Amino acid sequence: MTIEKARELLIKKEEQGKDVDIEKISTLKMLFKDDNFFLRITKKVAFGILEFLGVKEEDIEREYMELISPEQYHNHRIFLIKGEEK
């Protein structure tokens, strides 16, 4: 899973309408602006978010590992090289 896919799942969750925790969705929208959000939180919190987004229990570990993988980190080019953002 990519952060873009997580954002898509959040939008789908919001569109479900009834029985949706609007405050949680609003907070996650704000946090998901950071492409590296999942690198900054605990595994337990990340699992809770993925569950909230509707990821199947048997897929949560795999999806989490993809979200925090070096490839994701590199793909978003957020790491600093020589003090400059690339």
Low-confidence stretches: 78-86
Q: Give the SSE string.
A: HHHHHEE
* Rounded Rg: 14 Å
The average pLDDT score comes to 83
Q: How would you describe the overall organization of this protein?
A:
The chain has 86 residues and is mostly helical. It has helices at 3-15, 22-31, 43-52, 60-67, 70-75; strands at residues 80-81, 84-85. A two-stranded antiparallel sheet has the order 1-2. The chain is globular, with a radius of gyration of 14 Å. Residues 78-86 have low confidence and may be disordered.
Briefly say what this structure is.
By secondary structure, this protein is mainly α. It is built from five helices and two strands; from the N terminus they run αααααββ.
